[in-house]
Amino acid sequence: MKLRIKKEEILKGLQRIQGVVDKKNTMPILSNMLMVADGKGIEIIATDLEIGLRGRYAAEVESPGAVTVSAKKMYEIVRELPEEDIQIKVEDGNWVKIVSGHSQFKLVGLPREEYPALPDVAEEGMIAIAGEMLRDMIKKTLYAAGENDARYVLNGLYVSLAPAKGGLTIRMVGTDGHRLSLIDRTVDTKHKEESVIVPKKAMLELRRLLEEDAQQEGFQFGFSKNHALFVRDGLMMVSKLIDGNYPNYQQVIPAKNTKRVTVPKDLLSHAVKRVSILAKDKTNAVKLQLENNRLALSTNNPEVGEASEELSVEYSGDGLTIGFNSRYLMDVLSAMDRETVILELNDALSPCLISEDGDPSYRCVVMPMRV
Question: Are 241 and 229 contacting, i.e. CB atoms less than 8 angstroms apart?
Answer without folding.
Answer: no
